[in-house]
Design a protein that fits this description.
The complex is a heterotrimer of chains A (about 425), B (about 525) and C (about 160). By secondary structure, chain A is mainly alpha-helical. Chain A has 19 helices and 6 strands. Chain B is built from 21 helices and 4 strands. Chain B has 3 domains: about 1-30, no CATH class; about 40-265 and about 290-300 and about 310-345, Cytochrome Bc1 Complex, Chain C; about 360-520, no CATH class. In chain B, helix 6 packs antiparallel against helix 8 and helix 9 (about 155-175) packs antiparallel against helix 16. In chain B, strands 1-4 form a two-stranded antiparallel ribbon. In chain B, strands 2-3 form a two-stranded antiparallel ribbon. Chain C is of the alpha+beta class and about 160 residues long. Chain C has 2 domains: about 5-45, no CATH class; about 55-155, Rieske [2Fe-2S] iron-sulphur domain (Rieske Iron-sulfur Protein, 3-layer Sandwich). Helix content of chain C is about 20%, strand content about 30%. Chain C contains 2 helices and 10 strands. Classes of the chains: A mainly alpha (about 425), B mainly alpha (about 525), C alpha+beta (about 160). Chains in contact: A-B, A-C, B-C. The interface between A and B is large, with 37 and 41 residues.
């Protein structure tokens, strides 16, 4: 009878050879096609070319081609960036291309990679062993590699921005200035102080892209590209947003984005915090009261403008009163104004600003009241008797229209 | 007197050196009883039954058992996948750390850093999928070839136990990477375990009788998916379930042997012999067995070294076949593992739910049914299906037709008809629910008991049962009715799995293609 | 007895044993090679590709910061850096008895736990400690700083010349 297992022997031969083929291919792919391997080989050649003195020769001799990592358990991170970025602390590597080049600036003097790792400042997927995976962009990684100009947002994890050299954190400083100038606090809370119309921004930098609305954002989908797009056109990114377009130039957009990324409550061990950071935390609990003008500019400007004229707000579909208008200044009752500010006006976009709700200190509320309604502008009292008042003659219909336009937001319908 | 001189006995030292020199030979002779490849059928049979691992096989095997189209090697593929899973699993255990803070990073390490780690993890993942698919197909093969009939009923039950073990192993393994995929899939799974609550709440008896809550707490060790759940799943996955599965597998293989090997059509064993001008039976027909443990030989002549016709020696033919199928499984898994990475999403984040949060593919059909009613889809229908499967060999007692596909007359047309009926029913049901919704859409305040009683899943099962009963009456054959019901369930399961994979998107809404899913 | 025909005869003869064919040898060889390769790969897995844990390599500063005759204690890494005319060296502050941190005493080091005493060069003078305090390897990093490799011991007296 013919051989009953002939076909199985052929099958065994074929599948075994195919198996061997795939095993060899896998071994080659892992050992000889690894990105880091070739990069380290290149670096070894560079080291040997630069071995001009005894120290250089020792470094070239001791360089081993192997996977390298920096393990920082305190920061819960293992960073393998150093498998490709071999020259970050070699001052001779100024004229070579990335990834061999030395780390720019002198930041590694105070932040040695051995103690800090890399991702605590640069983000990215530290455990990765290829560049594409390390970037973590449009991948299943919560915090992709930051663009070069955004890295300073990480400084605030450990430092008080006011104590850093301004040149190092120019964008963060600029961003904070813009935040106050553009009166973002009118609608957003930071550190418990601000309006309630928009979301609180205390942990904005910790958000992942899944916590943002990406429908109208074109790729790449990163949190910073979202913020930049949002600053350029708020309602375009967030449908039905009530946020006004802050009319920023591109550098300003970048600065504010960096400032937003810096708003992140990180779990950094105390040994890594700089001492001024702890002072900053204490300062936050006991803020120095702002002046009336500062309060007005940071928390009222966005909706009320200069406040001298009322305006119709398209997004609110309401009339926003002139809180520094001459009429109000002359006649408004101070207690009435204080209540409006402290408790807000339910049913309108005016939020409460008292200590619990809006974070303003009683001194600040007093200060802003003085700013809105300087003592000199108040009329002391009305006329002694009405007999001397001359009743004007006028067009009551036009008056009614004017009333509806300018007065009804505070005084009710005509 | 002999002139040959008696040899002088060597000294002890010479004897010692002589033994030392012959060490390779003596060790080899002690280890391998035969010492050389078999040179006769007797030696071939010894090679089989003297070997610890091989003696589970019979010494001779029927030629039909070697035919690839009969079993498609599915049983071996399942077992081979399991072996691959055990080996790669133990290797992965060297690096995997079962802690919510360490698990994800250990998987990343395996992928990026560990030597062969990426490959091993991929192999492990894909062979798990291959195993689940293979066991389902194996069950279908056994059913359609009627190989559950007497004397193989108990082995069918053992096989059903193995099916549950396999699914449980895959499910427990799913949580271990502790990424978004794992976390939310197991959140759903544990809530399905909690689904008896739906019934007990509707009846108002939860306070006294809460099997749902009990199951969920047993699985999770807490009220949420966290460290305790991970450790329990780990222990189940690496020890308890593999031990149980290996035990059942041992019983399964032993029963195959006891029940006489693979099923074959009934009839005389091989041919008859011509003897004195007449055709005479050479051996007693052995029913549907491919061999008996012992065979009495009839005939005028003792036939030594001869066996029943149409059988071949297991060594080497059966073992070539098994080895070949094993390597087919290996190569298939290697190809998948080389070209496709096992998925891994972001670290598990309870604050950011996956949308849609999908169970592993073999549970997606159930998840579709669960979307109508958690209790019915998650517990009632699987229980009914499993019990139904278990009852098949005991309800279908008529012998005949086993050992070939669609063995009894009229089976194949019934299967084809049921394919269409099953397809029409499930597609119709899906089309209806997608377009019109169900009870809760029309009557928002309806009592949950109504939904448990009348929901797309239970209606589908009812339709299938009605069809099966109709076939029973029409063809007067329980086997035909079983074929009808099994085929309907198979089709329904496949279509529901496909539907939930491709056509369900965020918020479990219907989409034609994943590319249409809205970016959140 | 009737004569048997060929067919009947053949049934009574033992079947010939297949000779080992090239195909069988090839199939088995390739199978075992594949299995062997897979085993080799699998056995490679437990060997760590990178050693986990923080590398105990500490940059302590530039050589100019260490005057001749100075000693600088490095708290976090538990060693002291010395410099004399011959060069720079580092001595571990981990007591060789049971691992307590030794304190600097008038003429060397003293361990507060069980009373071991060491000389200024680490030599064990007294106490349950079985051996001297190890000297640690000192080197120079690419940026010029001195580096102490706290996991590498060097023979006593080894100095790093600067």
């Amino acid at each position: 009878m013919k051989d009953p297992s002939l076909k199985y022997r052929w099958l065994l031969l074929g599948t075994s050879l195919l198996t061997i083929g795939y095993l060899v291919a896998a071994a080659v792919r892992e050992n000889f096609l690894a990105e880091w391997y070739h990069i380290q080989k290149d670096y070894q050649r560079i080291l040997q070319a630069r071995a001009t003195d005894e120290r250089g020769r020792a470094i070239a001799r001791d360089f081993r081609v192997e996977l390298k990592q920096v393990s920082v358990p305190a920061l819960k991170t293992v960073d393998r960036c150093v498998s490709c970025h071999n020259g970050i602390d070699d001052p001779r590597m100024t004229d070579v291309a990335l990834p061999h080049a030395v780390h720019p600036g002198d930041i590694l003097k105070n932040h040695p990679a051995d103690r800090f790792g890399c991702t605590v400042c640069h983000q990215g997927q530290g455990p990765a062993a290829t560049f594409r995976d390390a970037k973590g962009e449009d991948a299943f990684w919560d915090y992709p590699l930051l663009d070069r100009n955004l890295v300073e947002s990480s400084c605030l994890a450990c430092h008080d921005v006011e104590k850093l050299p301004p040149a190092e954190v120019a964008l963060v400083v600029e961003g904070r200035k813009l935040y106050e100038e553009k009166s973002c606090g009118s609608c957003h809370k930071l550190g418990g102080r601000g309006g309630s119309l928009g979301p609180s921004l205390d942990n904005e930098g910790a958000k992942t892209k899944h916590q943002l609305i990406l429908t109208n954002l074109s790729p790449p989908h990163t949190t910073w590209s979202w913020h930049q797009a949002h600053f350029r056109d708020p309602a375009g990114i967030v449908p039905a947003s009530q946020m006004k377009n802050p009319a920023l130039s591109e550098p300003q957009v970048l600065a504010l984005t960096v400032y937003m990324l810096a708003q992140r409550q990180r779990d950094v061990p105390e040994s890594y915090l700089s001492p001024d950071k702890l002072e900053e935390k204490v300062r936050r609990l006991h803020p120095v009261p702002l002046s009336g003008e500062q309060v007005y500019h940071q928390f009222c400007l966005a909706c009320h403008g200069e406040g001298t004229y009322g305006r119709w707000d398209k997004t609110f579909k309401r009339f926003v009163p002139a809180i520094r208008g001459i009429s109000l200044q002359a006649t408004a009752d101070r207690v009435y104004l204080e209540t409006q500010i402290k408790l807000g006006r339910p049913g309108t976009q005016m939020p409460a600003w008292g200590r619990q709700a809006g974070g303003l200190l009683p001194e600040e509320i007093n200060a802003v009241l003085d700013y809105i309604q300087p003592a000199a502008s108040r009329i002391a009292a009305g006329p002694a008797s009405l007999a001397s008042v001359v009743v004007p003659r006028g067009d009551s219909i036009r008056g009614g229209a004017l009333f509806t336009s300018y007065c009804s937001s505070c005084h009710g319908p005509a | 007197m002999s002139t040959a001189t008696t040899p002088v006995p060597p000294s002890a030292i010479q004897e010692f050196l002589h033994n030392l020199r012959r060490l390779p030979h003596t060790v080899k002779d002690a280890w391998f009883r035969l010492g050389h490849t078999p040179e006769s059928e007797r030696e071939e049979s010894q090679a089989t039954f003297h070997n610890l691992f091989l003696h589970i096989h019979s010494v001779r095997v029927h030629m039909r058992s070697l035919a690839p189209t009969f079993t498609l090697g599915l049983g071996i593929i399942s077992a081979a996948s399991f072996v691959i899973l055990c080996i790669t699993g133990v290797l992965l255990m060297v690096y995997y750390k079962p802690s919510t803070t360490l698990a994800y990073d250990s998987i990343k390490d395996l992928h990026f850093v560990v030597f062969t780690g990426r490959f091993m993890r991929n192999i492990h993942r894909w062979s798990a999928h291959v195993m689940v698919a293979a066991v389902f197909l194996h069950m279908a093969r056994v059913f359609y070839t009627g190989s559950y009939k007497k004397p193989r009923e108990f082995n069918w039950l053992v096989g059903l136990g193995l099916l549950v073990m396999t699914l449980a192993l895959s499910f427990t393994g799913y949580l271990l990477p502790y990424d978004q995929l794992a976390y939310w899939a197991i959140t759903i799974g544990s809530n399905i375990a909690n689904s008896p609550r739906e019934l007990t709440d509707a009846l108002g008896i939860t306070k006294w009788f809460d099997p749902g809550g009990f199951q969920r707490r047993l699985l999770l060790g807490a009220n949420f998916v966290g460290e305790d759940a991970l450790i329990r799943f780990y222990v189940l996955h690496v020890f308890i379930l593999p031990a149980a599965l290996i035990t059942l597998l041992g019983v399964h293989f032993w029963r195959i042997r006891k029940d006489g090997g693979l099923a074959r059509p009934e009839g005389p064993m091989g041919g008859v012999a011509e003897w004195g001008g007449e055709m005479k039976r050479v051996f007693e027909p052995l029913g549907t067995k491919t061999y008996g443990l012992m065979a009495l030989v009839k005939g005028r002549r003792a036939t030594v070294n001869r066996g029943p016709e149409d059988t071949v020696m297991s060594w080497p033919h059966l073992f070539w076949a098994e080895l070949a199928v094993f390597m087919v499984t290996v190569v298939l898994t290697l190809i998948l593992a080389f070209h496709f990475d096992a998925p891994l999403k972001e670290l598990a984040n309870p604050a950011v739910p996956e949308n849609p949060a999908k169970a592993p593919w073999y549970f997606l059909g159930l998840q579709e049914l669960v979307s109508y009613s958690a209790f019915v889809g998650g517990l009632m229908i699987p229980a009914i299906a499993w019990i139904g499967l278990a009852l098949i060999p005991f309800l279908d007692q008529r012998t005949g037709g086993e050992g070939t596909w669609f063995g009894s007359p009229g089976e194949r047309p019934v299967a084809l008809e049921s394919l269409f009926v099953g397809l029409a029913a499930v597609v119709g049901m899906l089309a209806f629910t997608v377009n019109y919704g169900w009870l809760r859409n029309w009557y928002p305040h309806i009592h949950q008991l109504w939904i448990i009683a009348i929901n797309p899943g239970s209606i589908l099962v009812l339709l299938y049962m009605i069809w099966s009963l109709w076939v029973l009456r029409r063809s007067n054959s329980i086997r035909h009715a079983a074929v009808a019901l099994f085929t309907c369930f198979l089709v329904g399961f496949t279509v529901l799995t496909y539907f939930a994979t491709v056509h369900r998107g965020p918020n479990w809404l219907f989409y034609w293609w994943p590319s249409q899913w809205p970016v959140h | 007895m009737p004569e048997l025909n060929e067919k009947q005869k053949s049934r009574l003869e033992p079947a010939a044993i297949r000779r080992r064919s090239f195909l069988s040898v090839a199939a088995l060889t390739s199978f075992f090679s594949a299995a062997g390769m897979a085993l080799a790969g699998a056995l490679r897995l437990p060997g760590p590709a990178v050693l986990p844990g923080p590398v105990r390599r500490f940059k302590v500063g530039h050589p100019e910061e260490f005057a001749v005759g100075s000693e600088t204690r490095v708290e976090e890494a538990n060693f002291t850096v010395f410099r004399d005319v011959q060069g720079v060296y580092a001595i571990s502050s981990v007591c060789t008895h049971l691992g307590c941190t030794v304190a600097r005493s008038a003429d060397g080091f003293a361990c507060p736990c069980h009373g071991s005493r060491f000389a200024k060069n680490g030599e064990v003078v007294r106490g349950p400690a079985p051996r001297s305090l190890p000297w640690l390897e000192v080197g120079r990093a690419a940026d010029g700083q001195l580096v102490v490799y706290a996991d590498n011991e060097v023979p006593e007296g080894t100095r790093f010349r600067v």
